[in-house]
């Protein structure tokens, strides 16, 4: 078996990343853009020790779930993975992904997992987008690479991006403003990042340096592009890095804080703070978390990894007290402002790492009844889970995860520490991509 060999294989599984998996004499071959049950002709493009990667040449027997991609750039762009299948097939894949991780990593062989809560929108659902700017143009990166595919629209993102990208592109060409070049670490404009909410769209221009020439002309172009712009900011991010945003943000126009609401709670969101990207699904996700919390009104609720305070404030009126913890200082400032703005007086906030701050909170005499954990992809630090399991008053944990593998690892750890998973509900926040959110209710045994 070697590179450039051609084979006909049947697809029998899927990787966590959404690629089809087939076998050649027992040896695993990953083939992007294929579906379980299909027979396909492939050419091997990589043969490694434990697996090979094949490129699809032809679908010989298609799955009933195969669809024509609604996105013209799908097969070039690295953003989405699943436009070639029906949404029903995607939901089955996502449920299986959660179930496989819980079995393989968590050791939960017979645990019940609810059907995935589907997204009401499968295109145009993202309220946040980022488009790299390179000497090759503005667009998206190809799969697993920094090769730019020029495009001024993205089917899972808001329609507002197109006129914004066109106006920045026009301004760059007209005034000879250079794009940042990763190879030579030179040039100015690195990225265009947008976030859309109730108050309009916030445009963030990420630059490799402080100086931004032709600022007035840039502002004029953007605010006259035909969509509601609530603010324009410049974020300074200097040097060779894959991180999108630097620490410093300057307001060029309007308000740097975007406003949005989830149900009847209104939130102010600063550019560096985390905010869920699919709003209708966020309402469903938080409602499920609130249902699992089953608050009676007296409880103290820990909102760990609270971001701008969203989940806790969504529950605050049914709880005794909310204690929020978050590592990004701007997000904590937003959380405090949001509580005030929403008339929520029973929420307090701490800035720092959840695993370090939790001890302080307990030492101050807090007696939490419920903990909500909503960590980033890498999951929770064991130190946090250790302290939580030692809190006598704590009887319930609601774990919201955006990565099934780290969720499974942490659920196993918590199970050994005395908290058993009772309900597991995946919620699709990210249609057409392999990502899946999961809400889990755990009770003390
Ligand atoms: N619950 C919020 C945010 C979830 S995203 C919401 O639903 O909007 C995860 C958050 O955890 C981010 O805001 C991130 O800044 C924060 N974070 C990452 N590592 C952390 C840590 N070690 N301790 C506390 N917060 C952390």
UniProtKB/TrEMBL annotation:
<dbReference type="InterPro" id="IPR010280">
    <property type="entry name" value="U5_MeTrfase_fam"/>
</dbReference>
<comment type="similarity">
    <text>Belongs to the class I-like SAM-binding methyltransferase superfamily. RNA M5U methyltransferase family.</text>
</comment>
<dbReference type="InterPro" id="IPR012340">
    <property type="entry name" value="NA-bd_OB-fold"/>
</dbReference>
<dbReference type="GO" id="GO:0070041">
    <property type="term" value="F:rRNA (uridine-C5-)-methyltransferase activity"/>
</dbReference>
<feature type="active site">
    <location>
        <position position="402"/>
    </location>
</feature>
<feature type="binding site">
    <location>
        <position position="374"/>
    </location>
    <ligand>
        <name>S-adenosyl-L-methionine</name>
    </ligand>
</feature>
<keyword id="KW-0949">S-adenosyl-L-methionine</keyword>
<dbReference type="InterPro" id="IPR002792">
    <property type="entry name" value="TRAM_dom"/>
</dbReference>
<keyword id="KW-0808">Transferase</keyword>
<feature type="binding site">
    <location>
        <position position="305"/>
    </location>
    <ligand>
        <name>S-adenosyl-L-methionine</name>
    </ligand>
</feature>
<feature type="active site" description="Nucleophile">
    <location>
        <position position="402"/>
    </location>
</feature>
<feature type="binding site">
    <location>
        <position position="276"/>
    </location>
    <ligand>
        <name>S-adenosyl-L-methionine</name>
    </ligand>
</feature>
<dbReference type="GO" id="GO:0070475">
    <property type="term" value="P:rRNA base methylation"/>
</dbReference>
<keyword id="KW-0489">Methyltransferase</keyword>
<feature type="domain" description="TRAM">
    <location>
        <begin position="1"/>
        <end position="58"/>
    </location>
</feature>
<dbReference type="Pfam" id="PF01938">
    <property type="entry name" value="TRAM"/>
</dbReference>
<dbReference type="InterPro" id="IPR029063">
    <property type="entry name" value="SAM-dependent_MTases_sf"/>
</dbReference>
<protein>
    <submittedName>
        <fullName>RNA methyltransferase, TrmA family</fullName>
    </submittedName>
</protein>
<feature type="binding site">
    <location>
        <position position="326"/>
    </location>
    <ligand>
        <name>S-adenosyl-L-methionine</name>
    </ligand>
</feature>
<dbReference type="Pfam" id="PF05958">
    <property type="entry name" value="tRNA_U5-meth_tr"/>
</dbReference>
<dbReference type="InterPro" id="IPR030390">
    <property type="entry name" value="MeTrfase_TrmA_AS"/>
</dbReference>
